[in-house]
Each structure stands twice: as C-alpha cells, then as structure tokens.
C-alpha cells in the first residue's frame, strides 16, 4: 500500500495538567520503517471492534455549516489543493487534543497516513500511546527504548476517500469503538462528523441467519453443508483481516461455483434487508459453527446460534428438542403417517 503522505503530531498530557499539542512542522520522510509501521497499524486496526458509517449529511456544504466537525470541509479543501497535508492534520490534532484533555490522562502520538491501494484512496488516523521497552545498542549495552504501542490504539479511524467522493456509499468511514467512557467514544465520532450507518454485528448475524435458511432450503448433505460453512467463514474472515466488506455477490460465487448466484438470489428473494456490502464482525463470525452427530441411523446437524431458541438440549434427560421442524422433513413425516 503506497504511502502518499505521513505525519505525527504529539499530544502531551500528564495527569491533571492541561493537554498540550506539539505539532509537526512537516510530513515524515518515507522509509522502510514507515512502511513497516503502516503494516502493523493496519493489522491492529483490522482487529479492533469498529463502527461503520458516513459523514453527517451536510458534509459537502460550505465551511462552518457544521460546527460539530469541520473535517469533511477540510478534506474537500485538501483534495482540491486548497491546503497542504500538514495544515489538514494539524486541525485534526488540535481538536483531538481538546478531546483528550477532557477524557484521558495519558500522552500519545497522532499518526495520520494518506495511502493508495489499487483504485482506493484512504486517510487513516490513529492515536498511539507509548510503552517503555529495552533495546541493545551498537556497543551491545542494554538501553531503555520508548516504543509506540500498536495494541493500545484507543482512537483510530479510516476514510475511504474514493467511495466518499463517488457519493454512492454510506459506509466509507469506519472508526474504533473504544472500551473506555461513552463520552470519549461519542466525542470522537463528533470530532469526525461521523454518523453510524451500518450495524456490523446485526448485519453479520442476519447474513448468517440467511445462510442457515439457505442450507435448510437446499436440504444439503452434512458434508456439503459443512464445506459451505467453512467457505463462508473463510471468506468473511479474510475480508475482515484486510479491512474490507463482505460483498454478497462475491460470497455467493465462493459458496457455489456451479451456481454462483444461487445464494445471492436466495437473499434477494427472501428480502433479508441486507446491504450489498457488509462490514464483517469478527466476534460474531468466530461464534458461528455447526453442531453435528450421527448415531443409530439418526443424523442431526444445526447451526450453533439456534441452540437455546429453535433447538434445546436437555442434558439430564439426554434429549434434543427441535421446535421448528424443517419443511421438507415435515412433508416426509406426513406422507409416512
């Protein structure tokens, strides 16, 4: 992912003292070390729980029309070459300093990166805190070393500038949901001018429910069902690792190369209300698996999320209670009786 611009602004905050911004005077020169930092930052960001959405609807209005966040206007001005990268990022850093002054008591470095990947154009920002470590110098002596702590990324965001400028997406902006105070999370979203437009957890759950319905409708053998489950989780996890959304048409092709639109048409015909692109939720994906077993001529399999609702397990009585019998099975049972 080629780096177009990179910069670091320091925010100093010691206990109850007022936060102070130490702004950079120029971007960081491109080096192999900076490339390595970008790779580590991307990996850390993709592993975070995030919200997905877009700028407030007045984003393309004149300067000052949205007092809560001038960021969309500043980005428009920057892309039109009305201001340079240092000025753009200093404005972000100044507002972030005020936010930290009110909600955090630790220092950090605001890293802002402008990058290109394929046809995509991105702006990534992350507040990274420090940790004390050790290193061995050229004289082979152990010396203290201050490091950026990628794991402690309390506030970060990424804007897909290409999608934003195209105007055909409502999920071009993502930002981390900090586990700290609610006021800090809301303040950061306001700083960005962000409006949450996609519920990643809810959309992922709906997608998995649509898949379960599809498997049931097709009455697939257990082995085929398991293979498709593995394909879905594999594809979705890969997309999450790259920080990219699940594309329904692409997923449909992954699930069945012979009938590449079968799953996609199932979703559209049943009207699950899913977006064409879904930001994957890692936690929801990791909990999705199938229970299966065969004994004495009885073969049973079902998705784990059905346990406790459509399927109940009575361990003491050694019974499995199915509340919603599949349609195909009910028809077979009626014919038998």
From TrEMBL:
UniProt xrefs under InterPro entries: Nucleoid_associated_NdpA
Signal sequence interval, chain numbering: none
Keywords assigned: Cytoplasm
Localization (cell): Cytoplasm, Nucleoid
Similarity remark: Belongs to the YejK family.
This protein's name: Nucleoid-associated protein
Native species: Halomonas tibetensis
């Amino acid at each position: 992912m080629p780096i177009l611009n990179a910069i670091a602004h320091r925010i100093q905050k010691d206990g109850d003292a007022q936060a102070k911004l130490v702004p950079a005077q120029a971007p960081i020169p491109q080096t192999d070390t900076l490339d390595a930092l970008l790779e580590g930052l991307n990996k850390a960001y993709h592993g975070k729980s995030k919200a997905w959405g877009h700028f407030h609807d007045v984003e393309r209005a004149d300067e000052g029309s949205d007092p809560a966040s001038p960021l969309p206007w500043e980005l428009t001005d920057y892309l039109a070459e009305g201001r340079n990268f240092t000025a753009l990022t200093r404005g972000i850093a100044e507002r972030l300093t005020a936010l930290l002054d009110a909600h955090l008591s630790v220092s950090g470095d605001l890293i802002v990166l402008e990058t290109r990947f394929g046809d995509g154009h991105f702006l990534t920002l992350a507040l990274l805190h420090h940790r004390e470590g050790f290193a061995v110098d050229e004289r082979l002596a152990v010396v203290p070393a201050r490091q950026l702590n990628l794991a402690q990324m309390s506030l970060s965001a990424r804007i897909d500038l290409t999608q934003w400028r195209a105007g055909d997406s409502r999920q071009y902006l993502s930002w981390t949901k900090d586990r700290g105070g609610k006021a800090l999370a809301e303040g950061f979203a306001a700083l960005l001018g962000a409006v949450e437009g996609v519920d990643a957890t809810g959309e992922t759950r709906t997608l998995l429910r649509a898949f379960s319905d599809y498997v049931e409708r097709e009455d697939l053998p257990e082995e085929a069902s398991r293979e498709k489950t593995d394909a879905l989780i594999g594809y979705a996890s890969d997309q999450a690792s790259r920080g990219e959304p699940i594309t329904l048409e692409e997923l449909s092709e992954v699930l069945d190369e012979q009938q590449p639109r079968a799953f996609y048409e199932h979703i559209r015909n049943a009207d699950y209300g899913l977006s064409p692109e879904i930001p994957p939720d890692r936690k929801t994906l990791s909990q999705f698996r199938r229970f299966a077993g065969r004994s004495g001529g009885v073969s049973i399999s079902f998705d784990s999320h059905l346990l406790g609702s459509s399927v109940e397990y009575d361990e003491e009585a050694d019974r499995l209670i199915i509340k919603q019998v599949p349609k195909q099975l009910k028809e077979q049972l009626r014919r038998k009786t």
